[in-house]
From TrEMBL:
<dbReference type="InterPro" id="IPR029753">
    <property type="entry name" value="D-isomer_DH_CS"/>
</dbReference>
<dbReference type="Pfam" id="PF00389">
    <property type="entry name" value="2-Hacid_dh"/>
</dbReference>
<dbReference type="InterPro" id="IPR006139">
    <property type="entry name" value="D-isomer_2_OHA_DH_cat_dom"/>
</dbReference>
<dbReference type="InterPro" id="IPR036291">
    <property type="entry name" value="NAD(P)-bd_dom_sf"/>
</dbReference>
<dbReference type="InterPro" id="IPR006140">
    <property type="entry name" value="D-isomer_DH_NAD-bd"/>
</dbReference>
<dbReference type="GO" id="GO:0016616">
    <property type="term" value="F:oxidoreductase activity, acting on the CH-OH group of donors, NAD or NADP as acceptor"/>
</dbReference>
<keyword id="KW-0520">NAD</keyword>
<comment type="similarity">
    <text>Belongs to the D-isomer specific 2-hydroxyacid dehydrogenase family.</text>
</comment>
<dbReference type="GO" id="GO:0051287">
    <property type="term" value="F:NAD binding"/>
</dbReference>
<dbReference type="Pfam" id="PF02826">
    <property type="entry name" value="2-Hacid_dh_C"/>
</dbReference>
<keyword id="KW-0560">Oxidoreductase</keyword>
<comment type="function">
    <text>Catalyzes the reversible oxidation of 3-phospho-D-glycerate to 3-phosphonooxypyruvate, the first step of the phosphorylated L-serine biosynthesis pathway. Also catalyzes the reversible oxidation of 2-hydroxyglutarate to 2-oxoglutarate.</text>
</comment>
<feature type="domain" description="D-isomer specific 2-hydroxyacid dehydrogenase catalytic">
    <location>
        <begin position="5"/>
        <end position="315"/>
    </location>
</feature>
<protein>
    <recommendedName>
        <fullName>2-oxoglutarate reductase</fullName>
        <ecNumber>1.1.1.399</ecNumber>
    </recommendedName>
</protein>
<feature type="domain" description="D-isomer specific 2-hydroxyacid dehydrogenase NAD-binding">
    <location>
        <begin position="108"/>
        <end position="283"/>
    </location>
</feature>
Length: 320
């Protein structure tokens, strides 16, 4: 039996090489496909390796009768319809941990860039100005960093923030309060985090509970001049409410790596605002992280198809 592995997004070549060098696999590496192209190519696939650029929808699953497994080269599986995958008997796996450091470092870069107006200063100088008055920032030292979500990435940021003499607090209702002790992080209630934090960085999973959690009601509970960083998922923030909070001066600025939808639509109220800085979902985009997650995803597919040994299964109901 020869299994076909379709890779409909851009992944590191080392993963492709690993799969191509494995007997029993036929590898189809297309690079990033549109949803229509994906559905058209899905018919032969026994497995797929994806990133965040494609969605595994009921339509794609219906077009993929041979599909047994999907491996996400990354953490978030919000681009996979897990219920539909389970009902089609498709195992969904991810590679948590492989991009933690890259994402934490990018988040830290965004926080410093936000505090010191680095992108704005760069744009101003490139436009021929020598403006030092407009870009007076704030130090991170002695500021309170509030982390919403204290998992792998939240913890990695806490470690880095300590080196900058920040006080770190976190809200995460799904971990033990003692989880912060070793890192000197106090786990607090959400309203307390809003009331104390000078910087709020989002690292929670996107769920029904967290979708749109940063809204007008939440901003009203925050300190005046708070700065927001989001390298988790765009849907955690209500964009219109954040734009209004920035316009009113309540929020001093925001740094965003993620959007809902991606790419953001032309009418996104945050794009182009002077005090909002952006990257296009780049937090995990380092050569280091991309080798790790892609090779790990390839190995998950090999173990599943050839050794009947799936790991990191996200929709565990499919195994019962
Ligand atoms: N921008 C990018 O390129 C990347 C984004 N991500 C995203 O970052 C996020 C975090 O990733 P990891 O730290 O690896 O995941 P993780 O699973 O280690 O941590 C997520 C944490 O969110 C917490 N959480 C769940 N519901 C919550 C709620 N209602 N309020 C507060 N916390 C809640 C969980 O208890 C968990 O501790 C994910 O959404 C992931 O998709 C991850 C890697 C790269
Ligand atoms: O594939 C990527 O670069 C996105 C990574 C990401 O968002 C994740 O791992 O959740």
């Amino acid at each position: 039996m020869i299994y076909t592995v379709l890779i409909p997004d851009n992944v590191d070549q080392k993963a492709v090489d690993l799969l191509e060098g494995t007997e029993g696999l036929n590898v189809v590496y297309t690079g990033k496909l549109s949803q229509e192209e994906l559905a058209a190519q899905a018919g032969e696939a026994h497995a797929m390796i994806i990133r965040s650029g494609v969605k595994i929808t009921p339509e794609v699953l219906a077009a993929a009768p041979n599909l047994k497994a999907v491996a996400r080269a990354g953490v978030g599986v919000d681009n996979v319809d897990l219920d539909a995958a389970t009902s089609h008997g498709v195992i969904v796996m991810n590679t948590p941990g492989g991009n933690t450091i890259s994402t934490a470092e990018h988040t830290f870069g965004l926080m410093i860039a936000l505090a010191r107006y680095i992108p704005q200063g760069d744009a101003s100088l490139r436009a021929g100005r020598w403006d030092r008055k407009s870009f007076v920032g704030v130090e991170l030292k002695d500021k309170v960093l509030g982390l919403i979500g204290f998992g792998r990435i939240g913890k990695a940021i806490a470690r880095r923030a300590q080196a900058f003499d920040m006080t770190v607090i976190a809200y995460d209702p799904y971990i033990e309060p003692s989880a912060g002790t070793e890192l000197g992080v106090e786990l607090v209630q959400l309203d307390a985090l809003y009331a104390q934090a000078d910087f709020i960085s989002l690292h929670a999973l996107i769920t029904d509970e967290t979708r749109g959690m940063l809204n007008t009601e939440a901003f009203a509970k925050m300190k005046d001049g708070v700065r927001i960083i989001n390298a988790s998922r765009g849907a955690l923030i209500n964009d219109a409410d954040l734009a209004a909070a920035i316009e009113s001066g309540k929020v001093a600025g925001a740094a965003l790596d993620v959007y809902e939808p991606e790419p953001p639509t032309e009418d996104n109220p945050l794009i182009g605002m002077e005090s909002v800085i952006h990257t296009p979902h780049l937090a995990a985009s380092t050569s280091d992280a991309q080798v790790t997650v892609a090779v790990e995803a390839a190995q998950l597919i090999i173990n599943t198809l050839l050794h009947d040994s799936p790991q990191n299964v996200v929709n565990s109901a499919v195994l019962t």
